[in-house]
DNA sequence: CTGGGGTCCT
DNA sequence: AGGACCC
């Protein structure tokens, strides 16, 4: 640790600084190669080696690499896909059952490596393996797989070794998926979610790539267009283009007030940080789904009889999922896509409280197939349908969707009692007053204590650590996130990396009561 | 007629 | 309830 001059240095260092900025975490992003196509090929091996597209309605939603070599792309219409590639074989992927099943198997494999697994869709997972990283006696920095833009720089925070170890874990995960499930995948290894996801796409398919912290700006700017940053969708992109922002560099250098004007403080801050490769969002453990639904699109229908038929079919499908889930929802939502006479189609939804009768159905023989229950739900759905259609006489409907939600929320009772603090009393600063905290231990816990706990409690504790422990708590936005005691006007004008540093320090202060006088904040405090 | 799902924020 | 984002 630096003495004396350290703080002076801090002022001028930015996110590129290697000695004070911690790239503490090791995040692995696992992305299954052309997911739906792989599942279909496993189910029907005769498809292997042939160009295969997965269709939903008149779209090819994904395809295998043989098809890509022949010019087929994701989300092409069937028509243009067949023009490009007449030999294309098509499999119907409208029923997600098989994809869901494999997705759960994948999730469970990954869970055996870390409790911190977050699903994104059916084919992507983030895994936080920071707690698996060990202090090795020898410096071991062999990276498994590719390294993004190999450089000789070694970050002083120790992340190079940690990420190298992460790459070994990722390799094991992928071998495991391949050997146990016959699934090939890509992995990206980096110190945050954004960069892990991005770096994993640089070598495809069936490969993995590690990003060392010294290359993070290089990776993010290689995307060229802001729209390629996950988190910047079509709406934000439109507004950026209106500002003439069409490169990552421009997004980086645009004054924050300009972005704030167009996007609001929160989004503005967030996407500018993304443009520097900064992403403090945590890996959020994927627990049971918050909603379970099914939908179907079709050529316009105009009669309630047809609507009823479609809804019955959807209801059967979704009830199967709800029953398998086992919980009892108390909200039912109907979504309708209307083909409006003049303009485009528009989606509308109505939601209502329900009594979900079946479930475990104790003594009464109310099972998943209970007719009375279904009829009641159908009545509710048709009522919702009328609310949407209203007095419109010549409606046309091109999509219907049903979704159940309103499941008992986990943390409902006495969060204080459930807190991790119950098991790990706060460590007072008095125990080791002026000792610099060892990087590997800071904010962490004694794993041996964890091992002693019963498995279910252990899981709960680990979840607590991810879900309510501080580090990347979505920042409580005050004005424009300005830390206390700092002039908001000054704060706004600071470069994003400095702002981030300040915010990080504020968060640290909130969580630990330890007073630290030598920090960045003091330089920006108003004299009082 | 651009899918069939999800999540979170406003 | 809608909108934005993700796959």
UniProtKB/TrEMBL annotation:
<dbReference type="GO" id="GO:0003887">
    <property type="term" value="F:DNA-directed DNA polymerase activity"/>
</dbReference>
<dbReference type="GO" id="GO:0003684">
    <property type="term" value="F:damaged DNA binding"/>
</dbReference>
<dbReference type="GO" id="GO:0006281">
    <property type="term" value="P:DNA repair"/>
</dbReference>
<dbReference type="Pfam" id="PF00817">
    <property type="entry name" value="IMS"/>
</dbReference>
<dbReference type="Pfam" id="PF11799">
    <property type="entry name" value="IMS_C"/>
</dbReference>
<comment type="similarity">
    <text>Belongs to the DNA polymerase type-Y family.</text>
</comment>
<dbReference type="Pfam" id="PF14377">
    <property type="entry name" value="UBM"/>
</dbReference>
<protein>
    <submittedName>
        <fullName>Putative DNA polymerase iota</fullName>
    </submittedName>
</protein>
<dbReference type="Pfam" id="PF21999">
    <property type="entry name" value="IMS_HHH_1"/>
</dbReference>
<dbReference type="InterPro" id="IPR043128">
    <property type="entry name" value="Rev_trsase/Diguanyl_cyclase"/>
</dbReference>
<dbReference type="InterPro" id="IPR036775">
    <property type="entry name" value="DNA_pol_Y-fam_lit_finger_sf"/>
</dbReference>
<dbReference type="GO" id="GO:0019985">
    <property type="term" value="P:translesion synthesis"/>
</dbReference>
<dbReference type="InterPro" id="IPR017961">
    <property type="entry name" value="DNA_pol_Y-fam_little_finger"/>
</dbReference>
<keyword id="KW-0237">DNA synthesis</keyword>
<dbReference type="InterPro" id="IPR001126">
    <property type="entry name" value="UmuC"/>
</dbReference>
<dbReference type="InterPro" id="IPR053848">
    <property type="entry name" value="IMS_HHH_1"/>
</dbReference>
<dbReference type="InterPro" id="IPR025527">
    <property type="entry name" value="HUWE1/Rev1_UBM"/>
</dbReference>
<dbReference type="InterPro" id="IPR043502">
    <property type="entry name" value="DNA/RNA_pol_sf"/>
</dbReference>
<keyword id="KW-0808">Transferase</keyword>
């Amino acid at each position: 640790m630096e003495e004396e001059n350290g703080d002076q240095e801090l002022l001028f260092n930015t996110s590129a600084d290697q000695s004070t900025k911690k790239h503490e975490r090791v995040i692995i992003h696992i992305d299954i190669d052309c997911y739906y196509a792989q599942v279909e090929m496993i189910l029907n091996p005769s498809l292997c080696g042939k160009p295969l597209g997965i269709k939903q309605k008149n779209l090819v939603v994904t395809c295998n690499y043989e098809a890509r070599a022949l010019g087929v792309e994701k989300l092409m219409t069937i028509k243009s896909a067949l023009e490009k590639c007449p030999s294309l074989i098509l499999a119907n992927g409208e029923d997600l059952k098989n994809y869901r099943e494999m997705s759960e198997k994948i999730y469970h494999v990954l869970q055996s490596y870390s409790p911190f697994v977050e699903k994104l869709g059916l084919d992507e997972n983030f895994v936080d393996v920071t707690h698996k990283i060990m202090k090795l006696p020898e410096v071991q920095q062999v990276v498994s797989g590719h390294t993004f833009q190999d450089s000789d720089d070694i970050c002083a925070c120790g992340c190079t070794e940690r990420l190298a170890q992460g790459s070994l874990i990722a390799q094991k995960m992928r071998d495991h998926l391949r050997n146990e499930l016959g699934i090939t995948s890509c992995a990206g290894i980096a110190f945050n979610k954004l960069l892990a996801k991005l770096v994993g796409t640089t070598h495809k398919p069936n490969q993995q790539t590690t990003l060392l912290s010294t290359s993070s700006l290089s990776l993010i700017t290689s995307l060229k267009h802001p729209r390629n940053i996950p988190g910047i969708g079509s709406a934000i992109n439109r507004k950026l283009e209106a500002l003439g922002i069409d490169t990552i560099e421009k997004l980086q250098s645009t004054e924050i007030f300009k972005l704030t004007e167009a996007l609001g403080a929160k989004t503005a801050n967030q996407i500018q940080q993304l443009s520097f490769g900064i992403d403090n969002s945590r890996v959020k453990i994927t627990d049971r789904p918050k909603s379970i639904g099914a939908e179907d699109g079709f050529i316009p229908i105009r009669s309630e009889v047809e609507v009823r038929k479609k809804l019955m079919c959807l209801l059967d499908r979704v009830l199967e999922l709800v029953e398998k889930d086992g919980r009892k929802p108390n909200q039912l939502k109907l979504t309708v896509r209307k083909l409006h006479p003049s303009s485009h189609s528009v989606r509308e939804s109505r939601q209502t409280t329900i009594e979900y009768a079946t479930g475990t159905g104790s003594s009464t023989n109310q099972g998943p197939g209970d007719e009375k229950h279904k009829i009641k739900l159908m009545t509710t759905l048709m009522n919702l349908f009328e609310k949407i259609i209203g007095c419109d006489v010549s409606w046309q409907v091109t999509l219907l969707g049903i979704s159940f939600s309103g499941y008992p929320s986990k943390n409902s009772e006495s969060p204080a009692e459930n807190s991790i603090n119950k098991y790990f009393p706060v460590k007072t600063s008095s125990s080791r007053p002026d000792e610099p905290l060892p990087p590997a231990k800071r904010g962490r816990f004694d794993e041996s204590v964890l091992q002693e706990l019963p498995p279910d409690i252990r899981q709960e504790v680990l979840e607590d650590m991810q879900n309510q422990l501080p580090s990347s708590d979505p920042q409580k936005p005050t004005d424009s996130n300005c830390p206390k005691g700092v002039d908001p006007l000054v704060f706004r004008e600071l470069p994003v990396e400095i702002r981030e540093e300040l915010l990080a320090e504020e968060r640290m202060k909130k969580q630990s009561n330890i007073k630290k006088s030598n920090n960045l904040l003091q330089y920006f405090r108003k004299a009082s």
